[in-house]
Every structure is written in C-alpha cells, then in structure tokens.
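[step 3/7] fold_predict: job queued, chain A
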Amino acid sequence: MRLWLSYLLLPIVLLALSGCGLLPPHAAPPRYHDFGPPVTGQPANAGLYLREVTAPAWLDSGEIQYRLLMTDSTQLRAYATARWIAAPSRLLAQRLREQLPGTGSPHYGLRVELERFEQDFDTPDHARAVMQLHAVITAADGTTLAAHDFTFSTPTPPDVAGAITGLAALAQQATEAILAWSASVSPEAMHGT
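[step 4/7] structure written:
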C-alpha cells in the first residue's frame, strides 16, 4: 500500500518542483508610459490659464489604442503590452500646464476636448499616429471668445513603440499649436469687442 501511494505522489511532487510547468505562462504586466520630459517652449499669454482637458469616456483611459483600417476601420483596439500612466487627457493637461506661465492674473480660460488619439494602420507595414482636438478660449464668465479645431498626424513604425513615440510627439506638437493659436487670437476677441 505504501509503494502504491509513493507512485501516486511522485508525479505531484515532480510537478510542484518543476514550477507547475503544465500551467500556461503568465503574461508579462504592461509597461507604463507618459509623454516624456517637458520640452521648453515659448510661454503663453500671461492672462491665459487652463480650465480643463476632457475626452469621451472611451478615450479617457490608459489604453494605447490603434485601428486596423485595412480590415475593420470601425473597431478600436488596445495594445496589451503597454499603457499610458494616466488618461491621455490628463497627460495633455499636464503638458499644457508646463507651458503656461503660472504667474500673473489669469483673465482667459482654455478648454480642450481631445477627440481622437490613436495609431491607425493603413496596411500591416504602414501606420500613423493621429490626434484631433477642439480648443476654446473663454472669458472669466465662461463666454466663448474663440474656438479652433486641430488635426495632427505623423507616420510611425507599425508597432506599440511607434504608437508611443508618435502620439507623444503629437501631444507636444498640439501643445505648441494651441499656444501659438491662443497668442494669435485678436485682441478684439480676447476683450469681447
């Protein structure tokens, strides 16, 4: 009886010692990314402050999203091996705040709505990062003084690393374009005349 029991327990002990080799391997946890270190640029109008950056619920997550235009252009997918450290709207807000002066008396508010932030594949070997947003300058009472739509796109390597670097570059490009646009808004519009 003891011999029979030892034959029964031997495979169990060997499996335990082998690290349970029959179980599927665990997927590696995703790596987390941000937009990189701030880039010093020309500061914005001293009277401008950031009210908010918003995004639709489906975009306001930490997922790094992509779209396969050649097979299913209506399906948005997410990379499993990488994520943003925060929602793209929060990372964009941080990038904008880094460029705003932060001193003086703010008179005008900036609201930004992030509408698109993804990597699109035209073919398996050709991808591009795409970003769309809507920016609004408001008076202290919330009245809209000026609004502008922005679209940015840049070719990327067709992989997650390409998505990360391409989208981070577009976030910087968008920050610079928004601040340049806000500086170009006419004094008449900024003063409500």
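[step 5/7] annotate
The CA atoms of residues 130 and 153 lie 5 Å apart.
Strands lie at 31-33, 48-54, 63-68, 76-84, 108-123, 126-138, 144-156.
exit 0
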